[in-house]
Amino acid sequence: EPFVADEYVERLAWRTPGGGSRGGEAFDPKRLLEEFVNHIQELQVMDERIQRKVEKLEQQCQKEAKEFAKKVQELQKSNQVAFQHFQELDEHISYVATKVCHLGDQLEGVNTPRQRAVEAQKLMKYFNEFLDGELKSDVFTNSEKIKEAADIIQKLHLIAQELPFDSLMDFCCYPLSSPGKYHDLECQLIQEFTSAQRRGEISRMREVAAVLLHFKGYSHCVDVYIKQCQEGAFLRNDVFEDAAILCQRVNKQVGEVFSNPETVLAKLIQNIFEVKLQSYVKDQLEEHRKSDAEQYLKNLYDLYTRTTNLSSKLMEFNLGTDKQTFLSKLIKSIFISYLENYIEVEIGYLKSRSAMILQRYYDSKNHQKRSIGTGGIQDLKERIRQRTNLPLGPSIDTHGETFLSQEVVVNLLQETKQAFERCHRLSDPSDLPKNAFRIFSMLVEFLCTEHIDYALETGLAGIPSSDSKNANLYFLDVVHQANTIFHLFDKQFNDHLMPLISSSPKLSECLQKKKDIIEQMEVKLDMGIDTLNCMIGQMKHILAAEQKKTDFKPEDENNVLIQYTNACAKVCGYVRKQVEKIRNSMDGKNVDTVLMELGVRFHRLIYEHLQQYSYSCMGGMLAICDVAEYRKCAKDFKIALVLQLFDTLHALCNLLVVAPDNLKQVCSGEQLANLDKNILHSFVQLRVDYRSSRLARHFS
C-alpha cells in the first residue's frame, strides 16, 4: 500500500501507552515524545542499512553488466568464425554435388542403353514365344497382369508395323499370332471396361481407359461408354430434361475416367442430338406437317425453343474451344429441313386462319360481304348523293351494325403476335426483318383492309341523306370502334414488330406502310364528315316540326311564362347528345376539327332559322332566351370560334328588342361594330314595328 506519513504517525501514537487520547487522564506526553525519538533513531538506522544495501547491489549490477558485454563480444567473434566455416563447407558441398551430378550423368548414360537392351531382350523373348506359338510367360497367362500384357502387345504391334512385308513373310507364325492377340487383348480390355462401368468402379474404368488410349479400339471404348450411359436415361416423356440430367451426371464422371473428358462429353452430346432428339423431333413434326399447320407450327416453335434452352444449359460444360458453334451446328442439323420453308408455312396458315376468323364473324351476323367500290366514279356518286337530294340510289341499311368486332380484332392480333414470336425464334437473323414484314403485311391485309376499311366503307355507304327523318348515325359508332382497334394495332406494331426490324432497312418500309394505312383511313373519315349533314338535317326537322310562328308573336304579350321555346329545348338536347357521341368516337385533334365544323353548321342553321320569323317585343325577348340557351349548348363544344359566333348571334338578337333611339348605339357596340351593315339591317327588318318610319329612319 502507498505510504501516508500522517496515518503512520497516528498508528504509532495509538500503539504507545499513554498516547492514545489527548487531554485525558491516561495521556503521557513525555512517554510519547520518548517513543517518537526512539522510533526516529530506528528509522535512521534502517535507512543507513538500506542505503548500504542499495550501493552494494548497484556495484554488483555494474560488474555483471561489464561481464555480460564482454561475453557478448566473445560470442560475436565465435559467430563470425562459425559463419566463415559454414561458407567453406557450403563451397565444398557444392563442389562435391557437381562431381556427383557429373557421375550420375555418366552412370545414366551407361544405364539407359542397358535398360533399353534389357527391354529389347524381354521383347525378343516374348517375340520368340509368338514364333513358337506357345505363350508361356506369366504376363500372358495371368489375367491380373492384363495391363502389362497390353503394353507388351502394343509395342510388338508397333514393331511389326515398321517391318517390311518381305520380312514378315519370313516369320510366318507372327502374322497369325500377334495381330490376333492384339485384337483379342483389345476386346478383353473393352469388356473389362464395360464390366467396370456396370459395377460403377471408377478407378478401374480410369485404369483400363488409360491402357486403351494407345490402342486403335480406344474410340470403340468411348462409344461403349456413351451407349451404356444412355441405358435407362430416357424413361420419362420429357426427353430434353432427361438429356440435361444425363449430361450433368456424365460431366461429373467423365473427368475421373478419361484423359480427354471434353472430347468424350462432346461426343455424347452429339450422339444425343443426332439420335434421340432428331428422332423425337421428327416424330412430333411429321405427324402434323401436312394435316394440321397450326399444331405443326406450335410444335416446331416449342421443340426449337426447348432445344435451344437445352443448348444453353450445355454451354456450362467444357466441350472444347468453340462450343457455341458446335452446339449451333447440332441444332441446325435437326431443324434445317423444317426451317427452310418455315415462313411459307407461317404465311399460309396466317392467311387461312385470318380469313376463317373474319368469315366466321360475318356468318354470325348473317352478312354477305359486299364488294364496295372505292374508285373515282363511286366516290363522286356517293358525295353527290350525300350533299344533294338527287336520287342516285338508296344508301345501304346496316341496321345499326358497325361490322367491327373487338373479339375478331383480339383473335387476329393474337394470331399475329404468336406469328411474330415464332418468326423471332425460328427465322435466320438475316431473314428476320423480311419475314417479319411479310407477317405485318398479312395483318394489314386482314385487320386494316378486310375488316376496318370494309367497315368504314360500309359505314360510309350507310350514311343517310340529309333530308332523312329519324336517321340513325351509326357511322360515329364505326369511327369509335375503328379508333380503338387502330390503337391496339399500333401497340402491337410498337411492341412486337419494331424490335424485329429496328436495325434493318425494312423499318422505313413498315413505317411507310403504316403511314399509308393511316392516311387511307383518314380519307374515309373525312368523307364521313358528311354525317354532320344528317345531324343538321335532324335539327331542321325538329325546328320545322316544333317551332311555331306564334312563338315569336304571341297573342297575349303579357302572358308569356316560358323561358325558351320547346323547339330550342329539343334541338339543344339533340346537339348535346351528338357532341358527347363525337367525343366518345374520336380522339386528339380530330375531336376539335369535327366539333368546330358541326358548331359552324349549327350556328348557320340557327341564324337562318331565326330570319324566317317576325318578332314582337316579347317575341324578341323569347328569341334572345332561345339564343342564350343555344349559346349555353355551344359551350359544350369547347371551341372558341363556335362560342364567339353564338355570342355575336346573341348580340344581333338584341336588335329585336332595343328601343329605336338606342339602335345606333347598340349597332356600334363591340360585338356588332365589325359586322356588315346589311346583316344588321336584315335583323332589324324582322321586327314587327320596322314598318314605322321612325324605326327605319333611326336605322338609316
Automatic annotation (TrEMBL):
Keyword Transport: yes
Source organism phylogeny: Eukaryota, Metazoa, Chordata, Craniata, Vertebrata
Gene Ontology terms describing biological process: exocytosis; Golgi to plasma membrane transport
InterPro entries hit by this protein: Sec10-like (IPR009976), Sec10_HB (IPR048627), Sec10_N (IPR048625)
Domain of life: Eukaryota
Keywords noted in UniProt: Coiled coil, Exocytosis, Transport
Pfam families listed in its UniProt record: Sec10_HB, Sec10_N
Protein name as it appears in the record: Exocyst complex component 5
Organism: Aegotheles bennettii
Ranges for domain Exocyst complex component Sec10 N-terminal: 29-137
Membership in a protein family: Belongs to the SEC10 family.
